[in-house]
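Title: Request for sanity check on Diadenylate cyclase prediction

Description:
We are preparing a figure and want to confirm that the structure record we downloaded matches what your pipeline produces today. Could someone re-run it with the sequence below and paste the raw structure tokens into this thread? We only need the token string, no images.
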Amino acid sequence: MEFIKGLFINLRLKDIVDIFIVAMAFYKLFKLIRETRAEQLTKGIIALFVFTKVSDWLQLYTVHWILDKTMTVGILALIIVFQPELRRALEYIGRSNFFTKSFIEIKDESLSQLVEEIVEAVASLSRQKIGALIVIERTTGLSEVIETGTRIDGKVSSDLLINIFIPNTPLHDGAVIVKEDIIKAAGCFLPLTENTSLSKDLGTRHRAALGISEKSDSLSIIVSEETGAISIAENGSLARYLDTKTLRQILMDMYKPKDQKSTFIAKWRRKDGQREK
């Protein structure tokens, strides 16, 4: 008790700040590795560290020597094994507001028209049960993804979007990339998510939408070919079974200037958490 009391007496403001920064760093790290291969690997590393300390305490010299050398060499192995997760962490830091430019701000008249064109196209595709995947670029550039498809560079319109996804056409089986109010490319290939805990009824479009949302701050709109259900993917999470009114609100909120953004998406997700997978 005296030791604990001494800790609180000698606690300084900079110590509290130090603890807070470390706690936030561990929290962010946990969010990055959650439901990925890194989560299981991290558990293995912790177990190995515990066994090393226990072998030292029990004076199991040979076992301790092997485990200690394994931990030493393991630092280099970690860099190789965790390469995808490290890249993801660096991309996450690079996407922070301190390093990125502001997302495009569109005037109210053009904004309303742009959102209506997208919503009208998605609603039509949903009614006809035509599969679609629309990725809206934000602050993270998607030039590498755009290069995998066919360049269009046409203004966003519902007719153009619908025609792209009509079955048996050259560009229907891929993603459309939208930047600001321009359709940059169609028929693009996206990376699939590494999340292994997804529902089995999710197809390639949903997994691709989640994959690109894990690697960028883009927002993806998915229309299911089987059910016509509308979903969105953002920041590695999926919200399913949206109606057009909800989609319109999300898009309007996304394109608004930063100081006018509401927390509508977060509120909707908390209210309908069962829809997220």
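Thanks, this matches our download. Residues 2-94 form one domain.
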